[in-house]
Design a protein that fits this description.
Blueprint (H helix, E strand, L loop, with lengths): L1 H9 L3 E4 L2 E4 L3 H5 L2 H8 L13 H11 L5 E3 L2 E3 L18 E3 L7 E2 L12 E3 L7 E2 L12 E3 L18 E3 L21 E3 L22 E3 L18 E3 L7 E2 L1 H4 L7 E3 L7 E2 L12 E3 L20 E3 L27 E3 L24 E2 L6
Parallel strand pairs: 4-5, 5-7, 6-8, 7-9, 9-10, 10-11, 11-12, 12-13, 13-15, 14-16, 15-17, 17-18, 18-19, 19-20
Antiparallel strand pairs: 1-2, 3-4
């Protein structure tokens, strides 16, 4: 979990390259936390105990084995921004991190990563990859991070490394996920599928079999409803910028562990009574920039809910019991964020007791409604 939080903090500002935006990963910054990788990988670094190898010798060794045009330091190979049309040959066999971001690679062949059995992170962001050989990741059992965002893939590659922790396919051309597409990925924590032309009908029943993922990102897809077959283990689900128009009880019944749900920028007009009660552990809900006409029912029963964003909807009135339970002490966590601005609700008509379970004066944002 420490590693996942670290990587999230290391994603820098979006850069524009080749007419499209992509998030460059600072591979060297991740590599500086090598002690975390060694602990997770149970990798025994024999060179630390070898008195005959100096730092100068190590640098010289990597200069000799480094592919032309690339920059290499011990166990980190950086070949980004080189205009490569294929994966360089003769990559150092003890590499832990390989950076191939922002090139023109179109295909991953069977032997491109042959012999790299210690590889921990592989970054292929912003290439033109449309084809990956089914055996391209054979014997890469130590691979934890695989970033394939901003490419031209139309389906999930076969036989993905079994110990992946983070897998990213943001902005490809994936419109179908076949049954058992992620089979065997029992350690996966992060699955990013955003910005693909993926509709509900494109996900076969059992597509997510075997996953115990914590985060699933499916923003900017073509979803018209909340997917009902995602891993039941998820604690965070991002469905922003889709075309979902209602939330029904059956949509959330599978996701009892959910703590953060983001449905911003959809077309939601209706939340069925009892729907939110199916996610009792929820801490944060984003329903802003939709078409709701009233505060969703059931918020007051969510004992751990701390943040609810409802701004930029069509809510015209707020009831005294919409957010807080009737009995004092029933709510375990006080709200620290309720947003209602950019709605046609008149804040002077809202009863002061409506926000009795909010901690602090700045916990509520009402504002004036202006067309």
């Amino acid at each position: 979990m420490r590693l996942l939080l670290l990587i999230a903090l290391l994603l820098p500002l979006t850069a524009a390259v080749g007419g499209k935006n992509y998030q460059r990963v600072d591979v060297m910054e991740i590599a500086r936390n090598y002690d975390i990788m060694v602990a997770d990988q149970d990798y025994d670094d024999d060179s630390d105990d070898d008195d005959n190898d100096s730092d100068d010798n190590n640098v010289h060794h990597y200069d000799d084995s480094c592919p032309p045009g690339c920059h290499c330091t011990p166990r980190v190979v950086q070949c980004s921004d080189q205009g490569l049309i294929g994966v360089p040959g003769k990559l150092p066999s003890d590499s832990l991190m390989i950076d191939l971001q922002n090139n023109d690679i179109t295909e991953i062949k069977e032997d491109d990563f042959k012999g790299l059995e210690k590889l921990y992170g592989l970054f292929l962001i912003n290439n033109r990859i449309s084809k990956i050989h089914p055996r391209a990741f054979k014997n890469m059992n130590n691979l934890r991070l695989l970033y394939l965002s901003y490419n031209a893939l139309t389906q999930i590659p076969a036989d993905l490394p079994p110990n992946l922790v983070e897998l990213r396919f943001h902005e490809n051309r994936i419109n179908r996920i076949q049954r058992d597409a992620f089979k065997g990925l029992r350690k996966l924590h992060v699955l990013e599928l955003g910005a693909n032309p993926l509709a509900n009908s494109g996900m076969e029943l059992g597509a997510f079999n075997g996953l115990s993922t914590l985060y699933v990102g499916m923003s900017e897809n073509k979803l018209t409803a909340v997917p009902k077959d995602l891993p039941s283990s998820i604690t965070e689900l991002n469905l922003e910028y889709n075309k979902i128009f209602k939330i029904e009880v059956e949509d959330l019944i599978r996701y009892k562990n959910l703590q953060r749900l983001s449905l911003s920028f959809n077309q939601i007009r209706f939340v069925e009574n009892g729907s939110l009660a199916k996610i009792p552990n929820i801490r944060e809900i984003h329903l802003d920039n939709n078409a709701l006409k009233k505060v969703p029912a059931g918020l007051s029963s969510l004992r751990y809910l701390q943040v609810i964003f409802l701004h930029a909807n069509k809510i015209s009135s707020v009831g005294i019991n919409d957010f807080c339970p009737l009995r004092f002490g029933e709510k375990k966590n006080l709200y620290n964020g309720i947003s209602l601005f950019a709605n046609p609700v008149k804040y002077w008509d809202v009863h002061p007791g409506t926000f009795r379970c909010v901690g602090g004066r700045r916990g509520v944002q009402l504002g004036n409604f202006r067309k």
